[in-house]
Amino acid sequence: MRKIQSQGVHHITLTGADRQSTIDFWEGVLGMPFIFDQPNLDNPDEGHLYFDPGDGRLITIFTDETRKPVHDRTPTDPGCVHHIAFSVSLASHRQVVTRLDARGIKHSGVKDRGFMDSIYFKDPLGFLIELAAYKFEPPRGSSHAEVMIEAHRIRVAAGDESIGEVHLADAIERIVARSQQSLSTDRSAKDPY
Question: Which of the residue ranges 89-93, 122-126, 145-149 would you say has the lowest mean pLDDT?
């Protein structure tokens, strides 16, 4: 038996309401360029709108002019999607509360998640959206996931409940020590003062 190895999210497709409210939210609120439009090839009564969430991948929305926005929370039953998190820069993240408030969009405020800060709010159809900003940049040639697994190992070894900034900093130091050479034979911390 052999695995099927994924290499990232290709796209996520959501069921939307009408075309214009879809464009207004995904491009007009979240800034995702509207890049492609065609009928839903499995249901010609629906549109299929494509947006770029910022990394060149795709968020797609099925639209239908007879569907109207419903503001109830979407189901969170087993098998349902709880929420989607989108990455934003720290500079943008610090503006989210003000920009949501200006539109009258209710939100969670900033939530400190240890390794990232998050803000939650619902789209016009009641689907939970998270805007997340990492508190760290991975070392050159590494990914956020590599830092996270190293920070997890450090956290577990320390007996801590969740990943914090100290675990991230130590993880980054370990990754740099493994991936970048030095002429020094002793790379331990020093106090030159």
Answer: 122-126
* Cβ-count burial 61-95 (b if 16+ within 10 Å, e if not): bbbbeeeeeeeeebeeeeeeeeeeeebbeeeebee
Q: Whole-angstrom Cα distance, residue 160 to residue 22?
A: 42
Q: Which domains does the chain have, with CATH numbers?
A: 11-69 (3.10.180.10), 70-135 (3.10.180.10), 144-179 (no CATH)
Residue 19 contacts residue 68 (beta carbons within 8 Å): no
pLDDT (tens digit, 9 = 90+) per residue, 9-22?
999 999 999 999 99
DSSP state of 107: B
Beta strand segments in 104-171, E: 111-112, 116-122, 128-134
Q: Which residues pair with 13 in a beta bridge?
A: 60
